[in-house]
Amino acid sequence: MIILETQNLEYSYPDGTKAIEDVSIQIPRGEKVSFVGKNGSGKSTLFLLLNGTLKPKKGKVLLSGGEINYSSAGLLDLRKRVGIVFQNSDDQIIAPTVYQDIAFGPANLNYKKEEIDKIVNKMLDYFGLQSLKDKPPHHLSGGQKKRVAIAGVLAMDPDVIILDEPLSNLDPVGADEILDILNELNHLGKTIVISTHDVDLAYKWSDRVFLLSNSRLIDEGSPKDVFSKEEQVRNSSLKNPVILDFYHELEKRWLATGGKRPKDIPEL
Ligand code: ADP
Fold first, then answer.
1. 225 and 108 in a common domain
2. In what order do the strands lie in the sheet with 66-67?
3. What are 239-255's pLDDT values in tens digits?
4. Whose CA is nearest to atom 10 of ligand 1?
5. CATH at 130
6. 125 and 257 belong to one structural domain
7. What does this protein do (predicted)?
8. Which of 73, 78, 157, 241 has CA atoms 20 to 30 A from the CA of 255?
9. Is 41 in the pocket of ligand 1 (CB under 6 A)?
10. Cα separations (Å) of 248 from 187, 252, 266?
11. Residue 108 Cα, ligand 1 centroid: separation in angstroms?
12. Average pLDDT for the chain
């Protein structure tokens, strides 16, 4: 079942920059999806279109088959169902304490105070943030801020969580923590959509990859399918995933020795 879809989407910024051109995508419910493309290829703009922050000049965005309603009630409902985590946590975290920041979304949905307290405490426990709840978010580390930002989105219990470059600026331990959280949320049934220019991450993590270049969708499919077309990866100014380069190097060496690929090493 398709949870999010776009049909022939077009968007230009007020200064005339074309950011999304004729993009049609379908995101199946429950998948882990990566949008891959170099900086400026249109990933962030597409995400803002997917959660209604931007309105397309042409084309449609559909959630569970229904076209987005851009009235304020329609947008509130959309943002409850499609949460977005910005690349820079400081753009997202606005309240004076961690607790208040996580409470912001549920409060906007007019939940009762006790209900909000229950949700926030659940998030603080889940994300290991209880001991930080009264701290100003700008005193936290990058990884902690990212967890607060994701907790704030998850507090509204969306079906889809979209994260723009979720691992950028995190150290390897912080990045692994966030990946573990995303995988666990996916196991709990959430559809997880990320953007990244990290081809290795997209290759190892995703069920499905969409490749964007110059505001357009170039390809989509399993990571193996999309990244095995090396010319289109190069033409999109991306590198091959390291694992593929490694594999091709090995293959070259076997062939150079006149040997065949050893039986115990499968075809990619
Ligand atoms: P990505 O997320 O892949 O880096 P973006 O969606 O941010 O790509 O950018 C797509 C294009 O839109 C780029 O040419 C970028 O310069 C342009 N762009 C992004 N934001 C704005 C803006 N607020 N005003 C004008 N142009 C913008």
1. yes
2. 18-28, 2-12, 58-63, 66-67
3. 888 888 887 788 788 77
4. 42
5. 3.40.50.300
6. no
7. Part of an ABC transporter complex. Responsible for energy coupling to the transport system.
8. 241
9. yes
10. 33, 6, 12
11. 29
12. 93
Q: Are residues 198 and 253 in the same domain?
A: no
Between CA 202 and CA 184 the distance in angstroms is 17
CA-closest residue to ligand 1 atom 22: 13
Q: Are 6 and 24 in contact (CB under 8 A)?
A: yes
Residue 125's alpha-carbon distances to 89, 99, 121, 130, 184, in angstroms, are 20, 12, 6, 6, 15
The best mutation among 45, 47, 163, 164 to test binding of ligand 1, ranked by most ligand atoms within 8 Å of the C-beta, falls on 45
- Find the helix packing angle between 113-126 and 98-108, rounded to 10°: 130
Does 221 lie in the same domain as 120?
yes
Considering the domain architecture, whether residues 179 and 72 belong to the same structural domain is answered as yes
Domain that holds residue 14: 2-229
Same domain, 179 and 253: no
How many Å is the maximal CA-CA distance in the chain? 73
ipTM of this predicted complex?
A: 0.99
* Domains: count for the chain: 2
Q: How many CA atoms lie within 13 A of 222 on its CB side?
A: 4
CA distance 80 to 20: 24
178-233 pLDDT tens trace: 999 999 999 999 999 999 989 999 999 999 999 999 999 999 999 999 998 989 99
Per-residue pLDDT tens digits for 130-187? 999 999 999 999 999 999 999 999 999 999 999 999 999 899 999 999 999 999 999 9
Ligand 1 atom nearest the C-alpha of 197 is: 3
Cβ-contact 18, 213 below 8 angstroms:
no
Residues 142 and 267 placed together within one structural domain of the fold: no
Which is it for strands 2-12 and 18-28: parallel, antiparallel or unpaired? antiparallel
CA of 45 from ligand 1 middle (Å) equals 6
